[in-house]
Amino acid sequence: MSDTTKLTAEKRSDFGKGAARKIRRAGNIPAVMYGHGTDPVHISLPGHDTMMALKQANALLTIVIDGDEQLALAKDVQRDPIKPVIDHVDLVVVRKGEKVTVDVAVHLEGEAAPETVVTLDNNTLQLEVLATAIPENVVVSVEGLEAGTQIHAGAVELPEGATLVTDEDALVVNITQAISEEALEAELAEAEAEAGIEREESDEEAAESAEGEAAPADEAPADEA
C-alpha cells in the first residue's frame, strides 16, 4: 500500500481571486476536492506540508476535514510561474480497492555497451493501478545493451497488479551508436557547406595549413671532389 500523507484542511466559503490571495498570504493553499458523484468541496490546505507532499508524483493524500478522513490524489497542481509556490490544487477523491490511471516515471538502470547513446523517448508510462498501490517509478535496465536495441512499452516489466495503458508499440528507450568527434566535425562541415556558410579556420587549423603549404628548402648540391 502506498504511504499516505495526512493533511488537515479547512472548508472555505469565500471564492474568487481575492479570497485565494488572502489564503495564500496566510501561508495556505486554496484547493477543491471532488469525485464519485459528490459535490465539490472547497478547502484550504497547509502550505508547507502540502508542498512537501506534492514533491512526489502521484502522492496519495489523506485529507482530514472536520475530523473525517478522505483519500485523494492531486489531479492538477497550478504553480506560480516565478515563485516556488503552489497557487491551487485540484484533488480527486479515491477509495481503497479502486483503480486509477496515472503517469508513472521511467527510471533507467545500468550501463549500455561502450560507445553507445541511450535516449529515453518516453519518460513516463500511463498505468492503471490500485489507488493505494501507485508505484514511484518503473525500472528499465539497459545494462550491456548494444547499439540498435529498442525497448517498447509492451516489453517493460510492470509492478504487480499494474496494467499498461500506454500503447504497447510506443518507443521507450532507443540505443544508438555514438558518433565520433571526427564524424561529427565532418557532418557539421558538410551541413555548413550545403547551407553556403563559410567556416573560419581556427588558429590551430590555420597553423596546420601553413605548415602543409610550406615547401622544404632545396639542399645545395655537394661539392665535387
What do these coordinates show?
This protein is α+β, with helices and mostly antiparallel strands and 225 residues long. The protein has two domains: 4-94, Ribosomal Protein L25, Chain P (Beta Barrel); 100-177, RNA Polymerase Alpha Subunit, Chain A, domain 2 (Beta Complex), CATH 2.170.120. It is 18% helix and 40% strand. The protein has four helices and 13 strands. Strands 1-3-2-6-5-4 form a six-stranded mixed barrel. Strand 2 (28-35) and strand 3 form a beta hairpin. The longest helix has 14 residues, at 181-194. It is elongated. One of its GO terms (molecular function) is structural constituent of ribosome. Residues 99-177 form the Large ribosomal subunit protein bL25 beta domain. Residues 187-225 are annotated as: Disordered.
Write the layout of secondary structure elements.
Blueprint (H helix, E strand, L loop, with lengths): L3 E8 L5 H9 L2 E8 L2 E9 H7 L6 E6 L2 E12 L6 E8 L5 E11 L6 E5 L3 E7 L6 E5 L8 E3 L10 E2 L6 E7 L3 H14 L8 H11 L12
Parallel strand pairs: 1-4, 2-6, 7-10
Antiparallel strand pairs: 1-3, 2-3, 4-5, 5-6, 7-9, 8-13, 9-12, 11-13
Strand content: 35-45%
Question: How many structural domains does the protein architecture include?
Answer: 2
Radius of gyration: 30 Å
**SSE succession:** EHEEHEEEEEEEEEEHH
CATH superfamily of the largest domain: Ribosomal Protein L25, Chain P
Roughly how much helix do the residues carry, as a percent range? Answer: 10-25%
What is the mean pLDDT? 87
Could you give the count of β-strands?
13
The structural class is: alpha+beta
How would a textbook summarize the main sheet? 6 strands, mixed, barrel
Unreliable sequence segments: none
In whole angstroms, how far apart are the ends?
103 Å
CATH architecture of the largest domain, by name, is Beta Barrel
Characterize the overall form: elongated
Q: In CATH, what is the class of the largest domain?
A: Mainly Beta
| Count, helices | 4
Which fold does the CATH topology of the largest domain refer to? Answer: Ribosomal Protein L25, Chain P
| Strand arrangement in the largest pleated sheet | 1-3-2-6-5-4
